[in-house]
Design a protein that fits this description.
There is one protein chain. The chain is α/β, with parallel strands linked by helices and 171 residues long. It has one domain (2-170): Isochorismatase-like (Rossmann fold). The chain has helices at 11-14, 24-28, 30-43, 103-110, 122-135, 152-164; strands at 2-7, 47-52, 88-92, 114-120, 139-148, 169-170. The chain has a 6-stranded parallel sheet with strand order 3-2-1-4-5-6, with helices on both faces. Helix 5 (122-135) packs parallel to helix 6 (152-164). The radius of gyration is 15 Å and the shape is globular.
Length: 171
Amino acid sequence: MKALLVIDMLKDFIDAGGALETGEAGREIVEFVKDKIGEFRQAGHPIIYICDNHEVDDKEFQMFPPHCIAGTEGSRIIDELDVQDDDKIITKRRYSSFYGTDLDLYLREKGVREIHLVGVCTNICLLYTAADGRNIDYDVTVYKDGVASFDKEAHEFALKEMATTLGCTVI
């Protein structure tokens, strides 16, 4: 069984003027992400929205501007994505979708051994989710057309790292 992880497709990252927007690169992947959600939904595979969600005094704000603060409009999934009742939503406070969340437990309960990743930011949350997933023996697929970052050079490095070092399938 496989599942689609839709990582940080949130207003603060995607919408113009968002607190930590990925710019045009982030907006360009929205249609691909929508299509991939539809494909997985039609096949009956789980769709899991992973959502950055911080407290106002989060230590991460020493490195990045405040973003995705719990309860704010910026922490919401973008309007273009059709979240349905049977989709799973998991909030996280760190880069990896696994760290401090019930993602691994949820996937194992569903019999998932293969995770497919789309979203932002390639060199941060996607990379660390892929690494943690591989470290606990998930097969990981990353869709190049479905990931983006505000740093193009770091984006390219992360895709290469996921493919060569982590052994992810990058297509």
